[in-house]
Amino acid sequence: MNAPHPTPGAPVSPLRPTLSRMAGPVAAVALLACLPLLALTVPGVLPGYTYEPGTLQLLGLCWLTAALALTYHLLLGVVGLLSFGHALYFAAGVYGLAVVLEYTDIPLLPAAAVVLAGGVLLAGTIGAISLRVTGISFAMVTLAFAQAGNVLVRRDPADLTGGEEGLALATAGVPDGLIGVVNTRNLYWVALAVLVVTYLVTLWIERSRAGHMAAAVRENEVRVRIIGGRPYVVKLVVFILAATLATAVGMAYLLFQSGASPAVSTADFTLTILVMVVLGGVGSRWGAIVGAVLYTVLDQRLSELAGSEAVAGLPAVLRVPLSEPMFLLGTCFILVVMFLPGGIAGAASRAAEHVRRRRTGGPRERTGSAAPGGRPEAVLS
């Protein structure tokens, strides 16, 4: 018996398009979750098979940096805040959890709750001060706070952070399944879960009333103020949410790396996050993820290329620059900025639009002027 056809003009369930859009991301997450159980490899990209600890270490690092890039996307892509101090909150998660586990007997989950609360307080205090100014002044104030945090970590006046040597993970309060190379598979799943949760929270924030207001503030703060909005409060809320998520990612990073290093508190690290977001496309969630994954893979794998025999045998004019991974990363970044405006996400959007136009033969639909990264401008209702 044939299934009845829907009556023309009958309303379509709103769940149907939602479920169809969710099918792809859910399948992708399921595939990524199964990678530690599979024997897949990508020569030149992955160091080995996907079940090997070295490969899982690289992939897990990719997921954590992607989650961190998403938190910066909330600042730059959603509310339009250029911060040079976002690494401070990531470092607060790394060092905060390391210190609590090292000097107390609190188990992992309660310790993480304490550190998360501290991250909220830190972000609220610094955000309330920094957001009194705008533009480059805001960026400089956040940089000053981040530099102060880095000095405290490196100088270690309270004898807590280990100074330049960093601080190893105290394993007494950590479950055995999250310790050691033999449990890299479990740590990989933790990193993937952090990315998924961060993405869902970011999506929820963007689609909430606060997210819409933040987008409006990014486009025209004066207009928001004229119609009775409170741009300062909106920016502060998004600032605290982004910093809190970065703190949570930092705690997962500590477990994954089994230690804290002063490098995570530097302004250079914030600039690295900024490069990831710009590389993927400002204003695009999946662009931030792709940019972070691409940057991390290049950063890890170009070091191997720089020390290879193939590069060593080149003339000095080529060998010297190619033996420096940062030179190669900088070159890639310059090429993307010059030839892919809007980053990888912007290029993909233009390619998809070109394919659509060729299939339909119609003119491009105009839905409003585009924001950076291919996002439509916020509309004040």
From TrEMBL:
Region (Disordered): 355-381
Keywords tagged on the record: Cell membrane, Membrane, Transmembrane, Transmembrane helix
Topological category with respect to the lipid bilayer: Multi-pass membrane protein
Localization in the cell: Cell membrane
An MF annotation (GO) of this entry: branched-chain amino acid transmembrane transporter activity
Positions of transmembrane segments: 22-46, 58-75, 81-101, 108-129, 187-205, 232-256, 268-295, 327-349
Name of the molecule in the record: Amino acid/amide ABC transporter membrane protein 2 (HAAT family)
